[in-house]
Amino acid sequence: MDTGFIIEKFILVAVIFGISLVVAMYSTYAERKVAAFLQDRLGPDRAGPFGILQPLADGVKMFMKEEIIPTAANKFLFIAGPGLALLCACIGTAVIPWGSPMEIGGKLVPLQVADINVGVLYIFGVVSLGVYGVMIGGWASNNKYSLLSAIRAASQNISYEIAMGLSIIALLLMTNTLSLKTIVEQQHGFNWNAWYQPLGFLIFMICSFAETNRAPFDLPECETELIGGYHTEYSSMKLGFYLFAEYINMFVSSAVMATLYFGGYNYPGMDYMATLLGPTWAPLFGVAILFLKIVCFIFFFMWVRWTIPRFRYDQLMNLGWKVLIPLAIANIIVTGIVIAFVEKF
Amino acid sequence: MESLSNKKKVLDQKPLTLMERMYLPAIFKGMGITFSHLFKKTATIRYPEVEREFSTNFRGMHSLKRDENGKERCTACGLCALSCPAEAITMIAAERKPEEKDLYREEKYAATYEINMLRCIFCGLCEEACPKEAIYLDGPIVPADYLRKDFIYGKDKLVEEPLVMKK
């Protein structure tokens, strides 16, 4: 453990943390703009040119609002809830490889905070922790709507995590590793996993919609039935934390989808670009490519939100247990058979 | 009994077919529709900067007219107030003094003339009732304000600008 290593990681963590906050901030803006454009409107355009200062104005508004803690609420848990939600959303970015190692002053710097050999499991752990923020907040509010929403969030997450895990197993059969870095390196060039696992990707994507509580699976915050759900009683920046956590979750799950199935920082013609740009700038170009993919996924999240109506609760459970899980298991079996076949001949 | 109008429809809920139960075809169709709206013209008019074009017979804020010599036309006959279905108009009449001959057209004039813009329904009946062609609803939209008392418009806001004499 030399100081150079610590400084290098510290800078990387700070940069990634900053970027994910900025992306989440501008996701709120993008969400409103995308919604507006899909509905033939203009969206926010008053704060700054094209309204690009809108997220700052929203942030200031959130901080300035009166903070209310209901008297019947469990005060400690009420405050812990949004903090936990935001924390769990942020730490998911730690294992994502943002780019191939970059050469700075003759030294190779990996653009990944921690290359742990159980990266995929870590992501799963963090994602399932995320629901505790919602559950604790919903329970501590001491409000029946919030409680119902917390129950919904918990059961939804448990149901969809199974299908998500099973869809990943089929992928792991192919990659033979849990390290995200190795998985990305295997997808060099245009050899992306999505071409081999289209069904797996579809299941994974549907499940990540459910895990991030986004439409059409946004039952925990369903305005019409639950008056905002788990954040009914929240105000001021604590509400802001919940909303923010949702967007960071969206960013992280977009990054995970891009990493696992769409080649991460790989792109066709990357070997040519590597010789053209040199070992310092080529990885940065890869990072830009990864961010392009992430932005596309975030747009897709929003596009779906403003198209598809919310599922009914029984439809949600039917889809999870009776459709996605059997499909994921079938996908594992088919993948296994094909791999055994390919190895034999 | 046979239906006379022939409009009755028997609705029955059929079980979903496999294609419908897959959701995906319908989802892709819907996403195609929303995506096509990305490229459509927005219906928004950026209000304070851009204003919607009104038709020529749009009825907006009232104005009390002057004649060709710049004298107020209103004689405070009260027909507008009488015709007003919302009872938004009140006035106090006064007699013209000899030195005020250039200000008012006839011997009687409205010393105060008030329209409550919160009551007014912009029907234009005052305009139709006026025998002197003194009131017209030819102004812009009545602007928003904070206090109720500020919506009672007196002569200071209603009477149109005096004619500027050409040099």
UniProtKB/TrEMBL annotation, chain A:
Cell compartments where the protein resides: Cell membrane; Membrane
Topology class, membrane: Multi-pass membrane protein
InterPro entries attached to this UniProt entry: NADH_UbQ_OxRdtase_su1/FPO, NADH_UbQ_OxRdtase_su1_CS
Alphabetical keyword list: Cell membrane, Membrane, NAD, Oxidoreductase, Quinone, Translocase, Transmembrane, Transmembrane helix, Ubiquinone
Primary location recorded for the protein, binned into one broad class: membrane
Sequence intervals crossing the membrane: 6-26, 76-99, 119-141, 162-180, 192-210, 239-262, 282-303, 323-342
Molecular function GO labels: NADH dehydrogenase activity; oxidoreductase activity, acting on NAD(P)H, quinone or similar compound as acceptor; quinone binding
Subunit structure: NDH-1 is composed of 14 different subunits. Subunits NuoA, H, J, K, L, M, N constitute the membrane sector of the complex.
NCBIfam families: PRK06076.1-2
Protein name: NADH-quinone oxidoreductase subunit H
Gene expressing this chain: nuoH
Automatic annotation (TrEMBL), chain B:
Record-linked HAMAP family: NDH1_NuoI
Gene3D superfamilies registered for this protein in UniProt: 3.30.70.3270
Function: NDH-1 shuttles electrons from NADH, via FMN and iron-sulfur (Fe-S) centers, to quinones in the respiratory chain. The immediate electron acceptor for the enzyme in this species is believed to be ubiquinone. Couples the redox reaction to proton translocation (for every two electrons transferred, four hydrogen ions are translocated across the cytoplasmic membrane), and thus conserves the redox energy in a proton gradient.
Cofactors demanded by this protein: [4Fe-4S] cluster
Subcellular location field: Cell membrane
Residues reported in the UniProt entry to bind [4Fe-4S] cluster 2: C84, C120, C123, C126
PROSITE patterns recorded: 4FE4S_FER_1, 4FE4S_FER_2
Main location, first listed in the record: membrane
Entry EC number(s): 7.1.1.-
Reactions accelerated catalytically: a quinone + NADH + 5 H(+)(in) = a quinol + NAD(+) + 4 H(+)(out)
Catalytic EC class: translocase
Residues that bind [4Fe-4S] cluster 1: C74, C77, C80, C130
Listed GO CC annotations: plasma membrane
InterPro entries (alphabetical): 4Fe4S_Fe-S-bd, 4Fe4S_Fe_S_CS, NADH_quinone_OxRdtase_chainI
Transmembrane segments: none
Any single GO BP term: aerobic respiration
Cofactor mode of binding and number, as noted: Binds 2 [4Fe-4S] clusters per subunit.
Subunit and interaction comment: NDH-1 is composed of 14 different subunits. Subunits NuoA, H, J, K, L, M, N constitute the membrane sector of the complex.
Keywords: 4Fe-4S, Cell membrane, Iron, Iron-sulfur, Membrane, Metal-binding, NAD, Quinone, Repeat, Translocase, Ubiquinone
Protein name as catalogued: NADH-quinone oxidoreductase subunit I
Family statement: Belongs to the complex I 23 kDa subunit family.
Domain 4Fe-4S ferredoxin-type: 65-94, 111-140
Alphabetized GO MF terms: 4 iron, 4 sulfur cluster binding; iron ion binding; NADH dehydrogenase (quinone) (non-electrogenic) activity; quinone binding
Membrane topology reported for the UniProt record: Peripheral membrane protein
